[in-house]
Amino acid sequence: MTFQKLLIGASMAIGVSYLATVPAQAGTLTNATIGGTAASDYLVYDSNATNTFKVANTSENVQKVLSGNAASPTGNVELAASSEQAGFDFTKNTTLTGTIGGKTLTLSSLTSDDWFGVGQTTTTYGLNNLANTWFNQALSSNSITSPLLTALGHTQQALFNSFLTNGGFQRFSDPNISYVNQDDTSGLISIGLAGHLNAAPFLGLSSSVFKLQASEIVKYTYGGKTDYLYSFKATNSGLLELSDGISHSGNYEVTIKGVPAAAVPEPSVMLGLLGVAGVFATQRKFKKASI
Length: 291
Hints:
five-stranded antiparallel sheet; alpha+beta
């Protein structure tokens, strides 16, 4: 009986130790599909150790390139890929939809309605809308103040107007989704946005004078909520787009507070628990035999 008790205690300790040491697992987006009102307006970029490069727009490639993470952001899917071309329809969107943690997540490019307000095709400086909010935050988050701009011959309003006129909001409406992962314990969903490590030239500023980090914007719908995500802090992706030599150099990570996936024990944990159950079963047999 003493031996049996020791064996049970040891088995339980092993089982508990497995439970305590199992690391948090990361779920990824599955069943990825492209949709929206401009469902064909997207590009898929695969990658190697140094470059991203275009590949065929197939569902297999879409799923493959979303396999990265913050430490290794691989390829990406660019939504509303024609946003920088003449004739771009700013009223339509392209979406990426999939399942993560058993729930549906939709990521979308932006339209003029998102930036300027429903029914508005343009805007002016100083209005209360996403266009003004994002632009002002892009400058302030990078410590680019009005006095600094004035000293260098710029004004914030002039920069905004130039950005608007030159299609800047369209340019930043086409998010390049490089990965979508979820921490199974906390439920936090992490989304990688491939962008420029220094986006100063795209806001009308010299890259030799300013270092400005700003991601493109992605619109999301998850758990009945729709909102916008963007970041002003990038890490070096270690990649450059093969054809232009400058794109996809920065990785911007944005997050959504997701619902944790249902806990599923690791195989090692199950073995430990089965060991405990086996000892209890053996103990019952011993008791029956001794009656």
